[in-house]
Design goal:
Blueprint lengths: L1 E4 L7 E4 L15 E2 L1 E3 L2 E3 L6 E6 L4 E7 L3 H19 L4 H17 L1 H12 L3 H22 L13 E2 L2 E5 L5 H14 L3 E5 L6 H12 L7 E3 L4 H10 L5 E5 L2 H11 L5 E5 L5 E4 L5 H13 L11 E5 L3 H12 L20 H16 L3 E3 L15 E4 L6 H4 L6 E7 L2 H8 L7 E5 L3 H10 L4 E4 L18 E2 L4 H6 L2 E2 L1
Bound molecules: nicotinamide-adenine-dinucleotide.
């Protein structure tokens, strides 16, 4: 490690690390992957496929089967049979054993899962290794513990599984979202048909392999890769699906709500967000700066609960912005497999285009844009860490979910004004509060309309805590005891 000084900011020290790449050879990529139906990998009936690529290089990683309507029929049918004949009637303690086994195999194969996640999604290996994979294992461990205690979950006597769950997940936390969906559903005795996002199918397919390795009865978990508009839409509308769990954009979530109206299916939606990260003048500033940075630049800001609106008390706004600029100048953008990387690639070309156009709109509306000077790789989808000042609450960058490494800074004078600005959104997924005053934390938490309020921390997840939104961020909770309720008839 050596120390250099940037020419544009001579006072600013940049630590130069030598590259520390994780070995790609740990993953054994197949050239093509089938659908996982009835405990086996099979070809789609009509033979359709598409390619998944590495967003950091645009290199094709593998050919992926695209499920059609007949594949959806087949998967739902085997899942229905497995639910009625094997998984539903099985004692909870037996189901728990399978879930514990899956959790342990995830741990054993964690390095492989982490590298594969970073290759397919573009996220830094440090995050897939330290967050995504351990949290996926933690979810299976946690819900394994519930499988034989459902009657003690506080939902009344004899809670029963709903039946077959159709689960559709996004590309930002592919493995973790699969675990959040599968673990509670299976613990409660449901069987599952999971549809991963088109651009990130690989870890869900490796999880299917792990499920095979754990000897889960065939048909209990099925994984259908393919297009949202085809496989996803057919899956959620299928009459054999009793429960739909969707995580993704608010737009598609609303479409699903309309499409499923009157069909009598259970539905939970985890949608977008535009979280406020609120910093008071008495906050421990070093900690708050790190929390703001983690809040918006973790996973390139492709996080539904990202702290994309910084609300900072006016008296410290200039100091905070200066400190943020200096901290952002030390962030390393580049190779997701490098252990020193802080920001990886944007997951796909469409998302990059969406970020670019919202950022341009922000500039056109008069906000002041700032990014550190950082060289971006020539290939792949990249966006630098970006800060907007001079932002007014009515501008699109303050209202719309950008889902990228872009922070909009707004100011407030009083706690009441902070709450009013924070709640001035159609979303309501999360918020953060930074202050040394305990009573203020409690008051803010009571008045912020958000499913989770973090105090002096941000983006902290735990399988024991319910997570989910208010308003257009969706409804239903994942995690904790509440996560089980979403998969039980009581
Ligand atoms: P998306 O809505 O485009 O896609 C999500 C999933 O839905 C994908 O698997 C996609 O193939 C599928 N899909 C698309 N159209 C469909 C249809 N008509 N019927 C059924 N399925 C369909 O979202 P995305 O771009 O993959 O993910 C980003 C979004 O997800 C962001 O808005 C983000 O906020 C949200 N998100 C929310 C949470 C949460 O917990 N609230 C977590 C992660 C991501």
């Amino acid at each position: 490690m050596s120390k250099t000084y940037r020419t544009d900011q001579p006072e600013h020290v940049v630590w130069e690390y030598s590259p520390a790449p994780e070995s790609r050879s740990i993953v054994h990529l197949q050239s093509s992957y089938g659908l996982f139906i009835g405990g086996a990998f099979v070809e789609p009936v009509d033979g359709d496929s598409y390619r998944t690529e590495n967003p950091a290089t645009e290199e094709v990683l593998a050919e992926i089967a695209a499920a059609g309507l007949r594949d959806v029929d087949r998967a739902v049918e085997v899942a229905g049979r497995a639910q009625k004949t094997v998984w539903g009637p099985m004692a909870g303690a037996e189901r728990a054993k399978y879930l514990f086994r899956i959790a342990r195999i995830i741990q054993e194969r964690s390095r492989e899962l982490a590298v594969l996640e970073s290759l397919d999604n573009g996220k830094p290996i440090r995050e897939s290794r330290d967050v995504d994979v351990p949290l996926a294992a933690a979810h299976f461990f946690y819900y394994a513990g519930w499988a034989d205690k459902l009657e003690h979950a506080g939902f009344g006597p004899n809670p029963a599984p709903i039946g077959v769950a159709g689960q559709v997940i996004p590309w930002n936390f592919p493995l973790m979202m699969a675990a959040w969906k599968l673990a509670p559903a299976l613990a409660a005795g449901n069987t599952c048909v999971l549809k991963p996002a088109t651009t990130t199918p690989l870890t869900a397919l490796l999880l299917a392999e792990i499920i095979q390795q754990a000897d889960l009865p065939p048909g209990v978990v099925n994984v259908l890769t393919g297009a949202g508009s085809v496989a996803g839409a057919a899956l959620v509308a299928h009459p054999g699906i009793d429960k739909v769990a969707f995580t993704g954009s608010t737009e598609v979530g609303k479409d699903l709500q309309r499409a499923l109206a009157g069909k009598g299916k259970h539905l939970t939606l985890e949608l977008g967000g535009k979280a406020a990260n609120i910093v008071f003048e008495d906050a421990a500033l070093d900690q708050a700066i790190e929390g703001i940075v983690n809040g918006i630049f973790f996973n390139q800001g492709e996080v539904c609960c990202a702290g994309s609106r910084l609300l900072v008390q006016e008296s410290i706004a200039d100091t905070v912005v200066e400190r943020l600029k200096s901290r952002l100048s030390t962030l390393r953008v580049g190779d997701p497999l490098d252990k020193n990387t802080d920001l990886g690639a944007i997951n796909n070309a469409d998302q990059l285009e969406k970020i670019r156009s919202l950022v341009e709109e922000g500039e056109a509306e008069g906000a002041v844009r700032w990014s550190p000077s950082c060289a971006l790789p020539a290939h792949g989808y990249w966006f630098p860490p970006t800060l907007f000042t001079n932002v007014s609450p009515s501008q699109s960058i303050a209202r719309e979910e950008i889902f990228g490494p872009v922070l909009s800074v707004l100011t407030f004078r009083t706690p009441e004004e902070a709450v009013a600005k924070a709640n001035n959104t159609t979303y309501g997924l999360s918020a953060g509060v930074w202050t040394e005053k305990g009573s203020r934390i409690l008051w803010m938490a009571q008045h912020l309309r958000a499913g989770v309020v973090w105090a002096n921390t941000f983006n902290r997840f735990d399988p024991t805590s319910p997570f989910g939104g208010y308003r257009e961020s969706g409804f239903g909770r994942e995690g904790g005891r509440h996560g089980l309720a979403a998969y039980l008839d009581v």
